[in-house]
Amino acid sequence: MRREHTNSRACRASHRSARAQRRAAALDRIEQGDRPDDVATQIGVSRRTLDRWRADARTSA
After folding, report:
1. How far is it, in rounded angstroms, from Cα 30 to Cα 5?
2. Of 5, 26, 31, 35, which has the maximum CB count within 10 A?
3. DSSP category for residue 46
4. pLDDT in tens, 2-42
């Protein structure tokens, strides 16, 4: 059985959008002064992932 390409593309786009929203929320909380360890735990990512997101945000700014 093959899936429709449009459905799988929409699913991937939706997943990327949700991930981007989590990333933006995490970075906003860090900017507001929340502790990175707390943010990582509450967002559901590792501290290393959060550190990568912060580094990416600094280089793209």
Report:
1. 38
2. 26
3. -
4. 555 556 666 666 667 888 999 999 999 999 999 999 999 99
Structure-token pair, residue 26: 């995490």
Please report where in the chains the tokens 């449009």 appear, as a residue.
6
What's the rounded mean pLDDT across residues 38-51?
A: 95
Q: Where are the beta strands (DSSP E) in the chain?
A: none
Q: Give the pair of three-digit tokens for residue 22.
A: 């989590």
- Say how many residues make up the chain: 61
Predicted confidence at residue 60, as pLDDT, reads 82
Question: Contact, 40 vs 49, CB < 8 A?
Answer: yes
